[in-house]
Amino acid sequence: MKAITTTNLTKKFADLTAVDGISFSVNSGEVFGFLGPNGAGKTTTIRMLTGQLLPSSGQATVAGFDIHSERECLKPKIGVIFEFQNLYERLSAKDNLNFMRQLYGVKQARVDQVLDQVGLKDRANEKLKNYSNGMKQRLLIARALLHEPEILFMDEPTRGLDPVIALQIRQLISQLALEGRTIFLTTHYMEEADRLCDRVAIINHGRVIALDTPLKLKENFGPTLEDAYIELTGHSMESSVLR
After folding, report:
1. Using one digit for the tens of pLDDT, what is the confidence trace for 43-64?
2. What are phi and psi of 123, to 5 degrees?
3. Sequence-distant (≥ 6) Cβ neighbours of residue 115 within 8 angstroms
4. CATH number of the domain that residue 96 is part of
5. What is the pTM of this model?
6. How many Cβ atoms from other residues are within 10 Å of residue 160's Cβ?
């Protein structure tokens, strides 16, 4: 079963073609990496797939819903974690989640469940202004999980985190995948993509230029996924050592 399908998906902004006729599919329960240099079209693609931005042309379905005509149906099915932490700093973690749960119509007990899942239950009543970046990132994941979505879109979830906290986030992503959630992941860390992803697509100048398993990409363009990426795009990416 396909969680996401795109066919000739395109987005233009005046004379700029940000996403240029991309076609791919993501299997249910898969961790799918979407890699590329800054400005390649990754975030624009996510915004189209999550119903925040209408395509200029082409088709896509997410969780079985058309992103043109059934955008409102997407919301209960997806969770979105963007790179920028849009949280209410003056509120506690629990208050942040209580605000969101009312929008989704989920029960109070679910707040405690997700806080426990991301390791924040003991600090649930503390205001976010006292939280580290890693704790805020875990809270963003908790917020995205509140309504138990089928598909999670994660845009640079470990960027700027120290190695220990980044490892915790990666372990959480692995656990969510084991639970059967589909995860659409962007990252600038090649070891992260190599370790977490079942398959990766590489996008450059708005076009998907490669799509395969990390192993196949390394066999064809390697010896590492970073080497494969540089060979395909001509761009280097940050590298993070997984511990």
Report:
1. 999 999 999 999 999 999 999 9
2. -120, 25
3. 93, 94, 97, 121, 124, 142
4. 3.40.50.300
5. 0.91
6. 11
